[in-house]
Design goal:
mainly alpha
């Protein structure tokens, strides 16, 4: 009886061992597969962001649409294309996103600059810029909390490239010599850049 009991215990232990091993072999690859899927998804999102960002700069650089004061036909065409690009991206964002809600709130709040003099016009443009700039930073921080260290580093590199393009466009602005109207133009084009980049970053939060 004792030998039979010992054999039974050994058999049960062996069965348990093999069952645990089999479960581990099944679960671990599944976990790794899920992690790979998440990582690949983030890579796809970043590639999409970079592609859209390239399209954006291509449009605004073509005829300097954000710096034009003459309403040239080619510029009007560029601005329409730019508007469609904004809409295309916005349609890809979760409609319940709190960041999209804040984006729309800012857009509606600062829909029309009704300043009656240069100071008021500039102040309005400044507040609008600051609102979008804050939303951009808030969205960026939220993504930082969500992404792995490696994925966020890839995004950081993309962000540096974007900032370089923003700085390069400032050189185009400086070359125009707009005079007193230059302040509101600068705020407006930088606001446009931040609004677009914020929408792009929201793709991470779907």
């Amino acid at each position: 009886m004792k030998k039979t009991g010992i054999k039974l215990i050994i058999i049960v232990c062996l069965i348990s061992f093999f069952m645990i091993s089999a479960i581990a072999l099944y679960i671990i690859p599944k976990k790794e597969t899920l992690q790979n899927k998440i990582q690949n998804n983030h890579i796809d999102i970043l590639n999409e962001i970079n592609t859209y960002q390239d399209k954006y700069f291509k449009i605004i650089k073509r005829n300097n649409a954000l710096l034009d004061l003459e309403n040239r036909p080619e510029v009007i065409s560029d601005l329409k294309e730019l508007k469609l690009l904004f809409i295309e991206i916005k349609n890809k964002i979760d409609k319940d996103s709190k960041y999209l809600f804040e984006y729309e709130k800012i857009k509606n709040t600062y829909k029309q600059n009704n300043g009656s003099n240069t100071f008021e016009i500039n102040e309005f443009a400044k507040r609008k810029f600051e609102a979008y700039d804050k939303l951009l930073n808030d969205t960026y921080k939220e993504i930082q909390n969500k992404l792995s260290k490696d994925d966020f580093e890839k995004l950081r590199i993309s962000q540096i490239a974007w900032l370089k393009e923003v700085e390069n466009y400032k050189k185009v602005f400086d070359s125009k010599g707009f005079g007193t109207i230059g302040t509101v133009i600068k705020y407006d084009y930088e606001t446009n850049m931040r609004a677009f980049r914020t929408l792009l970053l929201m793709l991470y939060l779907n």
